[in-house]
Hints:
Rossmann fold; three-stranded antiparallel β-sheet; single chain; globular; 219 residues; 9 helices
Amino acid sequence: MAVVSLQARCVFLGAPGAGKGTQAKRVAEAVRLAHISTGDMLREEVAAGSELGRQAKSFMDGGKLVPDDVIIRMVQDRIRKPDARAAWILDGFPRTLPQAEALDRSLSGAAALTHVIYFAVPEAVLVGRLSGRRTCSKCGAIWHVENQPTKKPGVCDRCGGELLQRSDDRPEAIGKRLEVYRSQTSPLLAYYRDRKVLREIDANRSPDVVYKELLKLMQ
């Protein structure tokens, strides 16, 4: 399997639970791209109790999007760091048209986007993935109570840390997250299709199959 060009600048687009984060980490490790996850960045701010974290927490707990100006500033600062100057994968950004337009304005010429890959998964499957997802409180490994259970319930197989359910993966937040996605993020498909950078992948398959096809799409 050929590897992705180290000059790739990609957006992974799709609904919550589509597998963007899992695949972004795998690809980034394989080809040494910077994996930029706005969700991870925000959760780190929340855990640290920073001002940004406090502002974001109320939105995240309710399944709502954090305001554009906060996210845009955070992503622009991250892309300027040395490890992300040549190549990166954006996971969880952009989620709205204003975010996509702001990203385009900050990137031009040799720094422009090379790929936007849409992870297509039926909504019923997404609900099952999100409600059963558990995250290790120590190492951040992701498990699933049905699809990828740990040997001992509630305990991470990798490090022995406690498994937690994210606040935005609880039933009361899942419906809101998907509603927000349909209204605010789905329009990005047409936006990027018009710019001829959009590629679609059937993400309702095994992670290994999705990964192999993903590398082909990103070449």
